[in-house]
Design brief:
The structure is a homodimer.
Chain A (H helix, E strand, L loop, with lengths): L16 H11 L8 E2 L2 H7 L2 E6 L9 H9 L4 H5 L2 E4 L3 H13 L3 E6 L4 H9 L3 E5 L3 H15 L2 E2 L6 H17 L5 E5 L4 H13 L4 E7 L4 H8 L24 H8 L2 E5 L1 H15 L9 H8 L1 H4 L3 E6 L12
Parallel strand pairs in A: 2-10, 3-4, 3-6, 4-5, 7-8, 7-10, 8-9
Antiparallel strand pairs in A: 1-2
Chain lengths: 326, 326
């Protein structure tokens, strides 16, 4: 284990800005503070000024290290030295593996046996032990439970955890400092860790800022839950290109979103691909499909955003370069 | 023409730092100041700390706007209103077109009829008039000459021009402020505009900094000229993947390089592709093959750079996304 470490609070209820600020200080030396980029050419095309907070440049190419580190640093030394575990086929796997690597403790990552090989390898490269399982949520959870029993490792949920969502919220602290005069803040929503976390920060720092969650029409549980004011799940396997946005909101993230978020916008698959291609071609940055969803929402609602200043959180850039959708 | 404009000096001899600083101030409001990025994962892999100055995020995705703007702003109002012209199938075409657009004067860009369609379209989108010609240097020059005669437009050379190379040199002023403690500064070399410009700045600001030009073995005129101390040209059509690095040094750029540059390193095509893939995968940024040449030079000379701090100028990110070499 890392010789000197700080101990962050273990959150038992929805975090307040003060706590997220404390967590930001605590994780700061372990994460990057990615730049905010913008593109005159995209702005001209859509008639809106868009600012992209580039978490695709974050450690491991996604914002997930923030939440993983926030959760890991809330564990006691005794807990931490037994290691941390999670199940994930995506960016959260690498986030937890990286947090463990930085803290010099074991990571046990359960991945469905049909996960993308490059993501498995990237997780392995971080020193994590990979345990494969059947690609069902039931077998994923059963396998993690086994590891918890056998190794005493602590489970870090990808989103439905107050420390995790507080960690993801730290991105808004940086973003609203880097770009002060935003009218809108847009982020993709899946399990809601990022959206709930940033909504707490943004609503407190700037009550006039409109916070909008964006998601693929093909995985629109957040939209349906938000407007029905009760949790409604996706079908078992949503067929969106956005592999990072297939999860359902959780009982910890949903109430925070309901309280702070102004709107959820659903977008078509073809708008996502168009937005992704625009970002690649005009900004020369690599973003995964999930990260293109907020820009797709602007493309589909040009009038609504016309002339305004919109901040977008680019969540990640991990994808198979040999399998592009354009 | 732009109502209010500044007039930059028209340079008749190799610029000094003072003049390049003045030009930097003059063009500053027209250009971006791209961030410097680095990747722990690449650094760990090669045992060197590398800092990438991301001119792929510059206007039009390449550093070329700096030189074009420096040259354009040295013209009198009378000259400028007749427009500017150049022949280029690549990033310089867009640099000149963009400079003209910003200054609200005509641009006449001569492009070989076999240029990549997306590059032609991008240049057109900037409001330039495209004139196609045969893909020979003779016909390119003849066509530009015709335009100069007919329209009175002023020719802006892609590199062999003191204002152009001084403009490209401004990238080093920013870079050495953003990253103060470099041991090496690496840039690709083609016609030598960038390398000569930054060498003047870097040698003056930090005489201990080693300045290294890097080029594909398949277009190694700079290497051969540098060590023979006389201009030696490439074969007519060098077969490197780096479409931006096929030009020969010029009689204005070469003496400056000979005076200030410490070394020229040639690299293999397969190292360039490997370096390019590394940058895409580990940094999530889009760079064109030419921009990967400096990292390829480190990959081929790991011992030489081991443990040192190396600055690399990422020259651009314009390429056909449907035709990747990996």
């Amino acid at each position: 284990m890392l010789e000197k470490r700080i101990l962050l609070p273990k959150l038992r209820e929805a975090p307040r800005l003060k706590e997220i600020k404390k967590i930001h200080k605590g994780i700061q030396s372990f994460i990057h503070q990615p730049p905010v980029l913008s593109s005159n050419s995209i702005n001209k095309l859509i008639g809106t000024s868009v600012y992209f907070k580039c978490e695709n440049f974050q450690k491991n190419g996604a914002f997930k290290i923030r939440g993983a580190m926030s959760a890991a640093l809330s564990l006691s030394n005794k807990e931490l030295q037994k290691g941390i575990t999670t199940h994930s086929s995506g960016n959260h796997a690498q986030g937890v593996a990286k947090a463990a690597q930085l803290l010099k403790v074991p990571a046990y990552i359960v991945m469905p046996h049909n996960s993308i090989v490059s993501k498995m390898n990237a997780t392995k490269e971080l020193g994590a032990k990979i345990i494969t399982c059947k690609p069902t949520i039931k077998d994923r959870e059963k396998t993690v439970q086994k590891i918890m029993n056998k190794k005493g490792a602590v489970y870090i949920h990808p989103y439905n955890d107050f420390n995790v969502l507080a960690g993801q919220g730290t991105v808004a602290i940086e973003f609203l400092k880097q770009q002060k005069d935003l009218d809108f803040l847009l982020a993709p929503v899946s399990g809601g860790g990022l959206l709930s976390g940033i909504s707490i920060v943004a609503k407190k720092l700037n009550p006039d800022l409109k916070i909008i969650g964006t998601e693929p029409q093909k995985a629109d549980d957040a939209f349906r839950s938000f407007y029905a004011k009760k949790l409604i799940l996706n079908s078992n396997s949503p067929q969106t290109i956005c592999d990072g946005l297939r999860a359902n909101l959780g009982d910890k993230t949903f109430p925070i979103i309901l309280k702070n978020v102004d709107k959820i916008i659903r977008v078509k698959e073809k708008s996502i691909i168009k937005a992704m291609q625009l970002i690649w071609e005009r900004m020369n940055i690599i973003v995964e499909p999930s990260s293109a969803v907020p820009l797709a929402a602007i493309l589909e609602n040009k009038k609504y955003f016309k002339g305004r200043k919109v901040g977008i959180i680019v969540t990640g850039g991990n994808l198979d370069l040999k399998n592009l959708p354009f």
